[in-house]
Amino acid sequence: MASHSASHPHDPVQRALGGGWSTFLAAAMRSPRDVGTLLPSGPELARRLAAVVPGAGQAGRSPVVVEVGAGAGAVTAVIAREADHDAMVIAVEKDPGLADRLRSRELGVRVVTADAATLPAILADHGVDRADVIISVLPWTLFSPRRQRTFLTIFAGALQTDGVFTAAAYSCGYWMPAARRFRSELGRVFGEVLPTRTMWRHLPPAMTYVCRRPGVTGKDITADPSR
């Protein structure tokens, strides 16, 4: 992992981004709807998103772990640390500046500069057709209903039948229409959707969804994780 910035050794933002705060901020200002926040994912959120990585995949098959919306690597570093030594970890980031910054950190992952909607082609380029885990840090509540549905359909189709999809969400907008649509779409493409409890100390407060059984029609998600 790249060393921390010498001028901000105790800054949690700098630690999360390996010193790349200015690159992250520039990308957020340049494409706010793609980045979705001025702050990177915190350590607690990163650990929760990556919790499904250890033990992914079936015996005799090297696991394939994909992160979409990798940014400058706040979550990527945790994924790389938790993944099995023989796992293929692919980090997909649309913004070229953030992708270059992530490559410079040399985390041992395969960084791809591309739109997450091209995930099937990305997997094919790496010699695989399905992923065991897909981890999303995309700003779902900023997406249109069509874009939410398109992405989730693509991701569900790119997972192994026993694969897992995890997504970050901000709890402050839990009851907003876009967030409700997102939960409904998760239930449409996954047979099991588990909302986790809110991390109130995260800025902004956040939670995650852990989704399994892709392609099996589920139900809308009504549990309130803010408790």
What does this structure look like?
The protein is of the alpha/beta class. The protein has a single domain (12-214), classed as Vaccinia Virus protein VP39 (Rossmann fold), CATH 3.40.50.150. It is built from 9 helices and 7 strands. The chain has a 7-stranded mixed sheet with strand order 3-2-1-4-5-7-6, with helices on both faces. Helix 4 packs across helix 5 (76-82). The longest helix is centred in the middle third of the chain and has 13 residues, at 145-157. Residues 1-21, 24-30 and 32-36 have low confidence and may be disordered.
Quick structural summary:
By secondary structure, this protein is an alpha/beta fold. The chain is 34% helix and 21% strand. It has one domain (12-214): 3-Layer(aba) Sandwich (Rossmann fold), CATH 3.40.50.
Which fold name corresponds to the CATH topology?
A: Rossmann fold
Gyration radius over CA: 16 Å
What fraction of residues sit in β-strands?
Answer: 15-25%
H/E element sequence = HHHHEHEHEHEHEHEE
Structural class based on helices, strands and sheet pairing: alpha/beta
Main beta-sheet strand count, sense and barrel state: 7 strands, mixed
- What portion of residues is helical? 25-40%
Oligomer state of the chains in this structure: single chain
The overall strand count is 7
Q: Supply the number of helical segments.
A: 9
Taken from the alpha-carbon principal axes, the silhouette is globular
CATH architecture: 3-Layer(aba) Sandwich
Poorly predicted ranges (pLDDT <50, ≥5 residues)? Answer: 1-21, 24-30, 32-36
